[in-house]
Write a structure and sequence with these properties.
Layout: E1 5-9, H1 16-30, E2 38-42, H2 48-55, E3 60-64, H3 81-86, E4 91-94, H4 97-103, H5 107-119, E5 123-128, H6 132-136, H7 140-151, H8 157-160, E6 164-167, H9 181-198, H10 201-206, E7 208-212, H11 217-224, E8 231-234, H12 241-250
Parallel strand pairs: 1-2, 1-8, 2-3, 3-4, 4-5, 5-6, 6-7, 7-8
Helix pairs in contact: 1-2, 1-12, 7-9, 11-12
The structure holds 1,3-dihydroxyacetonephosphate.
1,3-dihydroxyacetonephosphate binds next to strand 8.
């Protein structure tokens, strides 16, 4: 059975004191709560070490928001897998649309990062999704298929089991314009079918596919009720403990 996973991508938000407040707030609100899903937080790099000490006595897991594919070297401003692991990260978000569109990350670069993360035991949260122009041109499935095929090139079936796929339509990110549960379900179903063809039905059935893009407490339950939507990758609404926890409770 696949897992439901709610993850909070803090993006470039959260100085140290805010990290302490936010994680403490989430922990307080989840105290004695019987979690029905996995919970992951992805603070900025500078907060990871502090976040790690805070989540240690909780069920919350830690993710980074990006990683370089090389082990080490002259890559000013970059972060390596071993640095992330040394501060307790179990997950790393890779291929986020902001990395693709603002920082020019290609499917090939994302594939290298995925391969590296898997080889060192970090679990990728692999983001894909179409732009508004692509949706309006009716090429959503083609775009998503290309991102998946290229992003997962040379990823073995046993390694795929360590990946979470996050479908994040670019037009829904930070816009307040959420995909309807039906729109999201259609793409999730397509992704699962594709994985089934590329790997096997069993692997596809076990794959966690999150939806991301303007997920809020008031729309989370509708999205999460769909059969192929296995959680959420939350941006804006994860920056407040109560709204993030409300989304977790919608599971
Ligand atoms: P928002 O929830 O702010 O739309 O962001 C979604 C996202 O990009 C998560 O990775």
């Amino acid at each position: 059975m696949r897992k439901m996973v709610i993850a909070g991508n803090w993006k470039m938000h959260g100085e140290l004191n805010e990290t302490v407040n936010l994680i403490s707030g989430i922990k307080n609100l989840l105290e004695d709560y019987d979690l029905k899903c996995d919970v992951i937080v992805a603070p900025p790099f500078t907060s990871l070490e502090t976040a790690n000490t805070l989540v240690k006595d909780s069920q919350i897991k830690l993710s980074a928001q990006n990683m370089h594919f090389e082990d080490k070297g002259a890559f000013t401003g970059e972060i390596s897998h071993s640095m992330l692991k040394s501060v307790g990260c179990e997950y790393v978000i890779l291929g986020h649309s902001e990395r693709r569109s603002i920082f020019g990350e290609t499917d090939e670069i994302i594939n290298k990062k995925i391969i590296k993360a898997l080889s060192v035991g970090l679990n990728p949260i692999f983001c894909i999704g179409e732009t508004l122009e692509e949706r309006e041109a009716n090429i959503t499935e083609k775009v998503v298929e290309t991102q998946i095929r290229k992003g997962l090139e040379n990823v073995s079936e046993s390694d795929l089991a360590k990946i979470i796929v996050a479908y994040e339509p670019v037009w829904a990110i930070g816009t307040g314009k959420v995909a309807t549960p039906e729109q999201a379900q259609d793409v999730h179903y397509f992704i699962r079918n594709l994985i089934s063809q590329m790997y096997s039905k069993e692997t596809a059935e076990n794959l966690t596919i999150q939806y991301g893009g303007s997920v809020k407490p008031d729309n989370a339950a509708g999205l999460l009720s769909k059969p192929d939507i296995d959680g959420a990758l939350v941006g804006g609404a994860c920056l407040k403990a109560d709204s993030f926890v409300d989304i977790i409770k919608a599971c």
